Fold this protein.
Amino acid sequence: MTTAIKHAERAHALLSASASSRWLNCTPSVRLEEQFPESTSTYAEEGTLAHEIAELKLRKYYTEPMSQRTFNTRLNKMKKHELYQEEMLKHTDTYLEYLQGLTIGMKSTPYVAVEKRIDYSAYAPEGFGTVDCLIISSDTLYVTDFKYGKGVSVSAENNPQMKLYALGALIEYSFLYPIKSIKLAIIQPRLNSISEFDLTADELLAWGEEIKPTAQQAFEGTGEFVPGEHCKFCRAKAQCRARADQYSALGDFKQMKPPLLSNDEVGHILEKAQHIESWVKALKDYALTESLKGSEIAGWKAVAGRGSRSFTNLDTAFAHLKENGIDEALLYDRVPLTVSQIEKVLKTEQFRSLLEEPGYVQKSAGKPTLAPIGDKRKQIFNAPDASEDFANG
């Protein structure tokens, strides 16, 4: 019987696949990050728990047959986790059902590996990682990734994390299977997103050769610092001088003439400024941490925030109010659940059959928003003028 290693306890490579979009774009960042401690968040811990539930389901179905009793015992242990939510069962089912949809139609029994450690050090020094599930059938390698987050939809198209996993798998299994095509898929059930991308084995190998020099630079900590969207999860993002310098470049626009900016100039300013808010937040978080440690941040100090009020004992307080003539109806709000909340309560099939199909749920068009030109959403025109909002505000 296979004993699964807890996801949070796994070793991580310096050139990890999950951080590849960062070290491929900003090669010195990996070594710069080494001086900062690793941190986690509630969202990351939720994702780890959901991955462990998904792993249990996949092992039961594909690689480690077990009795329902054994499965329930293991699952119930996970349910005791403080971050467990019932919707995790539904979302991990979505991932399993996607994989079942792939494998059921295959002509012969496929090879399936769950939470498989992959070595891609032939292309990135000391590089390794763990792929959620890989499948090999005939001459096709499937690499799939389950993402529990619901913040941003992640595309599988030319995704470097997925391609590194595929490279490692191709190296390991090409002696056993005549792999010619690669299929990558990222499944994000909480966003109803399944992103797929196909490429040939030759295209993948060519990409691997292309990134070798960049990976070597990243391992050595050499090259140029290049700030960008990939800075989001960098541990050095608050203090990074290159990131600060890109915003100081906004001062160049002070010299522009005439006094009214052209559309081109507006576009250039927005491009430079689009990540300022997250950068300032990172700076504030860092400054607060340093201030609380007793370090001096010029012009700033840590103070107590506005506290919140709460009942010392809700039941006792409400009983006291009712004893003093306060009507109980005044103490509670009866508020219907939102569409999203009801979707969590019902199973997907129930929600679809009872609400969506009869037409009880409608989706209105979203308010127009500005996005970079590379955004995959379709460009729209003839939307209400933004000035109307200001006039009516």
Notes: The chain has three domains: 7-220, 237-292, 335-361. The first helix runs from residue 20 to 23.
